[in-house]
Amino acid sequence: MQLSKTEEQIMELIWKNEKVFLKDLIDCFPEPKPATTTIATLLKRMQDKGFVGYTLFGNSRQYYPLVEKTDYFSKHVKGIIKNYFGDSALQFASFFTTTSNLTTSELEDLKKIIDLEIKRKRK
Fold first, then answer.
1. CA distance 12 to 23
2. CA–CA separation, 123 vs 121, rounded Å?
3. How many DSSP H helices and E strands does the chain contain?
């Protein structure tokens, strides 16, 4: 299951803060601030999707992530690879390296990461 762009924005704030109250989430937004009811509705949807949980403190809810950021984005990237690159990570990597304007230094860093992963998998 995926999040909308706004839900992802809220989720980023929850991942960053680990635990956060509704008021604190709203304070993170620039002016004009979104309505409390709008954020509360989005949090309810995110809860229904299984992305956030909460702990009650009196009348206030402290929200926390139920899904790790790396897990969410890993599934998202896997979906992109499956839907746009014929389920081929190699085609995705080729596309990424040729179209993302990486510098020589960034490509060398990427190569080091790949070399380390090759060594790890050979063990």
1. 16
2. 5
3. 6, 3
Is the pLDDT at 123 greater than 90? The verdict is no
pLDDT digits (tens, 9 = 90+) for 75-101: 889 989 999 999 998 999 889 888 988
Average pLDDT over residues 5-22: 94
- What's the 3-state SS for 55-113? EEECCEEEEEECCCHHHHHHHHHHHHHHHHCCCCHHHHHHHHHHHCCCCHHHHHHHHHH
55 sits in which H/E element: strand 52-57
Indicate where the chain has its CATH 1.10.10.10 domain(s). Answer: 5-65
96-115 pLDDT, tens per residue?
A: 888 988 899 999 999 999 99
Q: What is the CATH number of domain 5-65?
A: 1.10.10.10
Q: What residues pair up with 117 in beta bridges, in sequence order?
A: none
Query: Residue 99 corresponds to which tokens in the numbers above?
Result: 């179209």
3 state SS of 115: helix
Token readout for 42 is: 């989005």
